[in-house]
Automatic annotation (TrEMBL):
Organism, scientific name: Nocardia mangyaensis
Organism taxonomic ancestry: Bacteria, Bacillati, Actinomycetota, Actinomycetes, Mycobacteriales
Recorded superkingdom: Bacteria
Start and end residues of each stretch annotated as Disordered: 196-227, 243-267
Extent of Low complexity compositional bias: 197-208
Protein name: Uncharacterized protein
Residue ranges, compositional bias (Basic and acidic residues): 209-227, 243-259
Amino acid sequence: MTLDDVAGELYGLDPGVFVATRTERAAAARAEGDRALAEAITALRKPTVAAWTVNLLARHAPTEIAALLDLGAALRSAQRQLSGDKLRALGNQRQQVVNAMTKRAGELAAEHDRPASEQVLREVGQTLTAALADPEVADRVRAGVLPTALTYDGFGPAGLVAITGGKASGSATRARRRAGPSQEDALATRRAEAQQELADAESALDAARSTREEAESAARQAKSDLDEVESRIAELRDALEHAEQQRHFARTAEHRARGESTAARSQFDRMQRWVDRARARLDED
């Protein structure tokens, strides 16, 4: 078991089972004595809805994803060559492909019972566009292991810029370092921090939800067991009451029968004595 194997599995799951499965895989790694792997697995962040949708797209439409990323390579090549006409043509094609892929991602999400909102689809489109700009982002999109959606600054003379967790790539990054952080950089950083906080909060919420569901399930089972025991007790009480009634009737019948038996025995004794006297008188005659 490697981190890549686990990441590939986790980011292909429905978000609802991500946390529980991550906990299981970390525990398995810990049981095998690989503490570093267990910690690395635990550090894997649950994907946002938009990131999960992109990961879903990567798994169910790999050919289309490959074509999209090939277009990104062509765009970067055209920019390096400063080919304006080619850039414009590829730029128009880029938007069409991104729109088509975003629509496909929405369809896949709906097929998996998680319809995407307009905001989620917007973030999916931004992430696909970022993958066109940055080879590193492209690799992560192709692998389908995104924890969060990504944004980009655009294709321009200063170079390609993709914001990935608050970091930029390309010549624009070097220019910004020389000029110092801009307001746009600060905004991107704050957004990345907010996304991180949201992802962490969602992960904690999922863990709490899992704990709550387990507790509620245990409570329901306990209530069911209690209802079953109480029902059995009620049945036994009814049976006991019926048995006590039968005992009372049997006791009354036994008492009556004993009295009748005593009376019959007395009657028999009297008749026997009568017979004995009659025989004795006959013998005298």
